[in-house]
Each structure stands twice: as structure tokens, then as C-alpha cells.
Amino acid sequence: MLSRGVEHSDGYRELSNSALDEFSTADYRALLEVYLDVMPKTVAALEQACEEDNAAKAAATLHKLKSNTSYICDSDLPNCCDLLERQLLSVAGNDATKDIQLIISRCRILLDEIATYLKS
User: Which Pfam families match (predicted)?
Assistant: First the structure.
């Protein structure tokens, strides 16, 4: 089973403020705003793939999540997406519903954290 995010000293579980070392504050906020716009659609696609029991679609969506979250997460969420993507691609008929639901839950936490950050 995949791990859950752990709350960091800044109060965020998934969102990384360390990315501010690589981006200006304005660029980081702009990146988060784009992410806040795109992420719900990606999570919905992952939910749909899970409902349809479509491992290939779930794996492709997890790949997208892995790439996107790697820019803004200190947590292991990108690695969890990668692990689950590879698992879905290598094992036909694998029942990964619980793990996919955990990823979806963590993405929702990330979305809430982004919204909170952008309001500050």
C-alpha cells in the first residue's frame, strides 16, 4: 500500500514551499494557479479510469500527475504516482483501486493546500 503524506513544519502535507528556491514568488504563484486549474480535470480523469477499470488510462493519467506534482511537491506523491503507473503497466488486470483512491485523496489535499497558499 502507498504511503500518505506527512505534515511538514510549514503546515503543508503535500505542497512544497522549497520550490521557491527555484522560482520567484510570482512565478511560483502563477505555476500554482495553472495547477489549480488543471489538476481537478486530471483527478476526474483518474476517477473515471478507476470506475471504468481502465488500467491503461489510469496509468497515462498517473504519468501526467507524476510529472506535474514533481514541480510542487516535497512529499512522495510523485513517486507514488510513478510506482502505481509502472504497476498498472506491468500487471494485467491488477486491482489498484485502493491505491488510486489514495492518490486521488492526496491530490485533493494538494489542491486545498494550493488554494490556501494562494489566498495568503
Answer: Hpt
